[in-house]
Q: What sequence folds into this?
């Protein structure tokens, strides 16, 4: 498999070889971007042209207008955004302190907590997602913000605590010791001294957490009903309910992509920086 | 007052601070993870129809019914393993190729990198819907192109194996960039000197790759494979949005099977048992994979 290809490449002049690589890479990029581009093109076609996206040059923003006039869709976008943002905020609040504890302290409490997190992390997702339906119902929060938000925060606890522990391990604790000696309280040492130096890592986690919650489907599918539509669930219902309105579906999909795209473009730097520590 | 005093005696100031730091996390973990796991475990031993929750204890009957269900044994399990193997292998190979290509600076590298990041931002559900549209039997672009090239249009999502292949394709589209990014980060942290030495010796690129890059990257590759395999095993959203498990439940993966038992056939007991069976399989598979790959690493050293 490899030998003939290498032979073929070796027989080319350096310039041609570079062109070959360039073309191959361009082709790969095209294939990766194509589905999204195609979706965008479909979303811009008028209803009459949607089945023949490749023919004709009529373009319109009607589908987008229609999406914005659909109350349920607008509500779904708002819900998804609110839940992703709140989940990110609270997940970080809960896991940063837990990761800090794991990194800075020893003893039975710390080792027990680490053991619990590790064990919980090993329990596969699906085994606790199904019964979550009953749990959330018995707490009386089924199909509400809180009912979707709290499990989303809980799902991140194990992994994020573990990551945050790693980040804090990489930060020298001597500054905090100095602060304590100077009469700072333990809380002060935590949020005045340790927290600011962990900001890159926290930003990285924030970006990942937001994207994950925004794109999440299974939780939302099980834990929400009519009152709290979120975008991924509404999209999946589209397929059966509005099976033939591909222009509307594409417009919704593109709109759902935009926040994630913007966030990744701006957050890329933090993610790469933060995860390198 | 006395309780407070005993607490104060048995927990020093530092211990109380430690407990306070983890208190919110512990509470949430108990409420939304420990309790559901317990309920799911208990439900798997009970006759628990959503329409008629008698909750009578039936012992291992639900497990027997899952493990003797021909659909589970002959379709769901093989599907899940084929899916996991195919998706992880293809994305690993492609991701590796892309990481190697991106490891050398060239003009437009930033642009290429951004394009390759694209699938990471797309929700799996949306990716599945995109593919569904592209492979639509009447109007999808794939059939249009095929026909233009003189081929024959096919009902992609109506036939079992082509539908299954599209599910795998979608997963590879979503996850190849993830492999590429992690492997690229790994490549960039490798020491330069062995590669320089190989270049001076005039070693062929293939031998450099085989005897230098792969062995040195092995820890990263192992972690990527194990994490991704476990995730692939429990894939739910793309199957749900692409085929819904069809045609005739032929493309169901294990998570969808458990979900359907519980929420479509309303048999929560059997659904829970299926989820636990699958969970145990993932645990064993994950451990085995780790062992095998770790063993390969030790032998090769």
A:
């Amino acid at each position: 498999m490899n030998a003939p290809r290498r032979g073929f490449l070796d027989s080319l002049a350096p310039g041609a070889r570079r062109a070959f690589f360039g073309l191959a890479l361009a082709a790969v990029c095209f294939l990766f971007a194509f589905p999204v581009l195609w979706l965008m093109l479909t979303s811009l076609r008028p209803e009459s042209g949607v089945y023949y996206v490749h023919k004709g040059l009529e373009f319109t923003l009607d589908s987008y207008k229609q999406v914005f006039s659909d109350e349920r869709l607008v509500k779904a976008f708002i819900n998804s955004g609110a839940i992703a943002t709140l989940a990110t905020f609270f997940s970080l609040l809960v896991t940063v302190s837990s990761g800090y504890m794991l990194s800075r302290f020893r003893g039975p409490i710390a080792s027990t907590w680490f053991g619990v997190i590790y064990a919980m992390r090993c329990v596969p997702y699906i085994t606790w997602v199904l019964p979550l339906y009953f749990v959330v119902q018995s707490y009386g929060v089924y199909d509400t913000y809180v009912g979707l938000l709290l499990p989303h925060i809980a799902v991140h606890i194990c992994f994020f605590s573990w990551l945050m522990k790693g980040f804090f391990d990489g930060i020298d604790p001597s500054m905090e010791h100095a602060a304590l000696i100077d009469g700072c309280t333990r809380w002060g040492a935590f949020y005045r001294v340790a927290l600011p130096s962990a900001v890159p890592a926290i930003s990285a986690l924030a970006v990942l957490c937001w994207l994950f919650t925004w794109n999440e489907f299974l939780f939302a599918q099980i834990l929400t009903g009519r009152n709290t539509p979120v975008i991924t669930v509404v999209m999946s219902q589209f397929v059966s309910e509005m099976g033939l309105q591909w222009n509307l579906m594409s417009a919704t999909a593109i709109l759902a992509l935009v926040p994630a795209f913007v966030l990744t473009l701006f957050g890329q730097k933090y993610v790469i920086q933060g995860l390198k520590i | 007052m006395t309780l407070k005093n005993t607490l104060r005696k048995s927990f020093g100031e530092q211990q109380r601070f430690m407990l306070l730091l983890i208190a919110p996390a512990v509470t949430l973990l108990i409420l939304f993870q420990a309790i559901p796991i317990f309920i799911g475990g208990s439900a798997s031993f009970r006759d628990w129809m959503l329409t008629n929750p008698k909750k009578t204890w039936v012992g291992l009957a639900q497990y027997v019914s899952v493990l003797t269900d021909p659909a589970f044994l002959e379709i769901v399990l093989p599907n899940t393993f084929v899916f996991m193997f195919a998706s992880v292998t293809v994305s690993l190979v492609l991701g590796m190729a892309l990481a190697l290509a991106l490891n050398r600076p060239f003009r437009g590298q930033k642009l290429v990198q951004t394009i390759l990041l694209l699938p990471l931002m797309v929700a799996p559900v949306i990716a599945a819907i995109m593919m569904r549209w592209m492979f639509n039997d009447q109007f999808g672009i794939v059939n249009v192109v095929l026909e233009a090239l003189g081929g024959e249009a096919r009902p992609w999502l109506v036939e079992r194996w082509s539908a299954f292949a599209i599910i795998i394709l979608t997963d590879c589209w979503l996850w190849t960039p993830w492999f590429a990014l992690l492997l690229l980060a790994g490549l960039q942290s490798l020491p330069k000197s062995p590669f320089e030495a190989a270049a001076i010796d005039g070693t062929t690129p293939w031998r450099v790759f085989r005897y230098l890059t792969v062995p040195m990257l092995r820890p990263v590759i192992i972690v990527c494979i194990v994490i991704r395999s476990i995730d692939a095993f429990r894939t739910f959203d793309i199957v749900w949005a692409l085929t819904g498990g069809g045609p005739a439940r032929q493309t169901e993966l294990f998570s969808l099977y458990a979900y359907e038992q519980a929420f479509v056939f309303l048999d929560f007991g059997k659904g829970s048992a299926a989820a636990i069976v699958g969970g145990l399989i993932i645990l064993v598979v994950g451990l085995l994979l780790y062992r095998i790959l770790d063993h390969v690493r030790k032998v090769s050293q």
